[in-house]
Amino acid sequence: MKIPAHYINTVKVYSIKRIYLSLIFMLLSSTIQIKAEVFDIFKEPCLFVYLTDGGVDAYPLNTIEGKYYTDGDSTYIKLLSGNVVRYHTDEYLYIDTEIPILPYMTSYKFNNKYNPNLNKDVGATITDGNINVRLNAIGKSLTASFQLSDDDAIAYIRNDLQTSKESRNRFDRTIRYTITYPNYNVVSGTEKKPFGRIYSVETEWLTDNSKVARMDINIENGHSVVSKNYYLNADVSITSHGVYDDFRQAVQIKGRGNNSWNYKKKSYRLKFAQKEKPFGLTKGKSWVLLANPQDCSLMVNAVAMKIGQLCEAKYTNHIIPVELYINGEYQGSYIFTEHVGLSNNSVDVDEEIGYMLELDSYYDEDFKFRSAYSDLPVNIKEPDLLENEKSTVSSSLLESMLNDNCLNTIPSQKFPNSSPIGTIISNYNAKNEKFNVIKEQFNRLDSVVCCNGDLSKVLDLDAAARYFLVIDLTLNSEILHPKSTFLWKADISSKDSKFIFGPIWDFDYAFGYSDKTYFINASRNTFPLNDNIPGGRFFKALRKNREFQRHYYKVWCEFVEKDCIKEVMEYMQDYYEFVKDSYSNNAEKWGDNTDYGNHIPVMQEWIKGRHDYIVKNLTEYDITDLINNPQEKIGDDRENYTFRQDTDIIYTVYGERVTNTENLRQGIYIINGKKVFIKKY
To answer: By the 8 A CB rule, do 337 and 317 touch?
Structure first.
């Protein structure tokens, strides 16, 4: 018999222990039961049964009766509860009171790669089983990265198996890890729970005892922002009250928005001369200050971005609440976030070979077209094909040239080739070649969607599914127009480059918005589409495509499996607790006397109802081939996996506990904390 490696220093000859054990059992008399969240093996003396399968059963001495007996084939342990535990001689190596050698934790951190709400990695020092961490995030659910002393070691929180860089927990209180080996369990009555080394994580949240950052923008000569078309020179300073690093830099500011620009409380676009990283975010030149003037909660965009992060939608923006002052005058509670575009801090794609489109009925970009099959209003968002010309020619002349259709013709007699303007027109026509390629590529996508072709060759279906999960869960009606609907391609010249939907943006008309009221009618279809609605034909056809539906089902299974909706609801409360003083200031500034906090439970109820409605109405698909790196696969017949009725903890992806395994349907299940795909029997 091969003895597990971690037994080597503890194996004893069983016969030497028999008399010793009998003496120990005679001393046992207490009736105290184990009720703690974790069991500290170093504080509670135990009797350890070393099993032949590599496990160890621990019996607290105060739970067993001082009697021990064997009949040759088996050993019996009598509990004070009256139960008797039997071990056949083939099941165990020996019994002892010496604590087994246990693994330990070697490192612990929170990596921002797995926690988008963190602006940087946060490490921790492990001292005598204590882990202390200071965090500046909004939202207290995090994914920890940790290392253990050897490959066989495992970690638990309570009875839940933990996987580094995957398991997500809420750190709003002390979190205790148990570091142990598989099947190292303490036995109390009929219950088992893991035992091992205990590590306590104490988290200090900087957002608990601080204020929202103050952002001061002082415009040159005291000017006001009155236009969306030109920038004003300014200086910006950020006072973060210890939550983030303070920041000061020269900046340019202009107005932004379409319909939102008509509100008294304005949104703004900021642009730095060089790439900067305010609030520790990824470096970038362009940023946005969102006013959320029609939002009764001031946080629908923040919550939408949180959903995007949780479902791993591509390049989802970060959200930082700020108190904005312009020229010393208070403007209200704002959101600071990235400007959507091809840039280092948004979609990190080289704009020399990549491009971004916006489906938007405002139809206001210089280069634009209506798609051939579905008549979608397609705007070339980036790159700006006229950027160089805009720096040398007046805007009025540019407009005149565009109106004269110079983009599609050789230089006309009005602008001779020998003239400076003629040279510019020649450059236009050269760039028009790129425009025509982009137009051709999108029209191909349009035709494949509308004719139910092979979408996998032209569209990233996984990214599209994640994008529309956010659209559906938030009930974002902007896509019906369509407006603010972005998609991009990384390489215009590559046959393998596919269109990718995203980033998600603009949720002012989401969350059941109707007639200036939010959170209405969570149980309705996002797409009551018909061919008379702009984009109706396109999106209706896309949603009906079977391959899209399979990917959509898969990402929803993931979302439900991770119980993301719970984190979304917790985030709403965490966010409000941090910004509530700022919200009070905003209400006073704009005279709406709104108690924004009253909307939080309404918003939570709405999003939970919306989630449940969608999950209930999901169409199931076989997604075997779409599951990425499943931790365990079960074969065609059930002999490949033996369900352990007494110990297996099984849930559906909808969070329902499975107690009867007799006729399980094909699909994804969570078995003992692992994602398992079960084929039909």
So the answer is: yes
